[in-house]
Amino acid sequence: YRGSRSNAIDHLKNAEMNGFSLFSCGAPVIIADGLRGNDFKEIPANGKWYSSVKVASAIHDADAMIVVSHVKGHELYGFGGAIKNIAMGCAPPSMKQSLHSDLKPKVKQTLCTSCGACIKRCPAFAISFDENKKAFIDSNKCFGCGECTVICIYNAIPVVWKTDATALFERTAEYVNAFMQQKKNKIAFFNFIINVSPECDCCYWNDMPIVPNIGILASTDPIAIDKASVDLINKAMPLPGSRIDGKDASKDNITALYPVQWKYLFQYAASIGAGDEEYELIKI
Description:
The structure is a single chain. With about 280 residues, the protein is of the alpha+beta class. It has helices at about 10-15, 20-25, 55-60, 80-90, 95-100, 115-120, 145-150, 165-180, 220-235, 255, 265-270; strands spanning about 40-45, 50-55, 65-70, 70-75, 80, 125-130, 135, 185-195, 215-220. It has two domains: about 55-100 and about 160-284, no CATH class; about 105-160, Alpha-Beta Plaits (2-Layer Sandwich), CATH 3.30.70.20. The radius of gyration is 19 Å and the shape is globular.
């Protein structure tokens, strides 16, 4: 990450600015991968893509864990919940890079206004101006995090939907599976299906929610809780004026928001033992 999440000091300041501190939460805020994001431990993965994965040291060493996730849309995954929160929230920068490595966008130069926002945002320092002062992405440096697609308000760096996201989904699932084994029987999840924004919370802006507030889910299974969350979102009526208002009736709400094969993430994760797609929804 660039800016206020690139080191622990600025990250702590950012957390406090957003209301997360020892005094507001009753628990300390700890930047788990150290001062510069290189404090991590490796755990076995035994997967198709990874034989081992990296976990931030403070998270690795924790006796137990409660994962609290805000459920929202996401331009790469379709949605963001517990699964993405584990993979991106527990991984040091080098692991995030590996997870994203196949998704590399390109600039539509006719739409580029030369504002430079993507250059400032890029964590890989992969974007620069070319001889025409248009943004150019160096594919050798880019690791596909998608930060530039989010920051560009002119749609000059769109998500490459034709790129197969299968590898991203499989790597993410393998990371979650390895993590669940490391924290076996010592982890629980809460998903807040409230203010379901169309974009990732990484954005410093967002659009109105796509569906009404639904509630809070709790589980010990990251696959089941995310599947239940998505099912509830897809059953809800789109809010008037939202990004998916007037959507194609043949599409579910998540697919209407982002045309990705989000179901495959659940299928692959369940197939390798990271959790179960089947669930029982108990209303309280």
